[in-house]
Amino acid sequence: MxxxxxxxxxxxxxxxxxxxxxxHQGRKIVSRSRKSILHEVVxxxxxxxxxxxxxxxxGASAEMYGVTCQRHSCKxxxxxxxxxxxxxxxxKSYIELLRTCRRVDGVKKIFLGSGLRHDxxxxxxxxxxxxxxxxxxxxxxxxxxxxxxxxxxxxxxPPFTILEEFVNLFRSINKRLKRRIELASYxxxxxxxxxxxxxxxxxxxxxxxxxxxxxxxxxxxxxxxLSTAMYYTDLDVSMRPIQTEKxxxxxxxxxDMMNKI
Length: 261
Hints:
Structural class: alpha/beta
CATH class of the largest domain: Alpha Beta
Number of helices: 10
Number of strands: 9
Number of domains: 2
């Protein structure tokens, strides 16, 4: 967060195995009212350092703003994995919020610094197009995390085919824009269950997709996450043994490989 950014909600219902947001903020989305957010935006425009630009309006996953579940007793760890729940309908409330804030006097542009779920945007192409048209800077950033389905399954992330579908959608929209936008990706190496072969395959696939603007992070065990339990036990959720690379030299090697796409 910085001076000219706004928190619209807290919590995350994505349920990614490696993420500690849900243990800290909750699995259910708690959203501020549109009136409250609008008031804060107006206050920002009165700041002595205001130049017309908001760096972010969002939360853990921006398009989850305003999401409520009709099944309050649901105990599923994720509303999006392995498939999106029929009671889960994100994105529309968020885009309406952005439209309202764009109309505030003195606001030249609202950028998005929060994360975006590519599996959600694939189902809402009109939302992706509006974000690219009005809220993207030089690039739009997504977090597929990996490309290999065996690793993605352990992460509780959507399969690689969804990423391919998103990239095709992004490019079709990009062709219609006056200003071209780059697509940047965020990935993790060294997640429990990953092999060196997985890294080599991931490099090939990202290169084939043309995703050369990639930020790479080595998996870091975080207290309270499922992935950390896998890391320390070398077992998946079904108690099956998995490979877990723990030597920092090898992990740095994997990161270096991905930095040279």
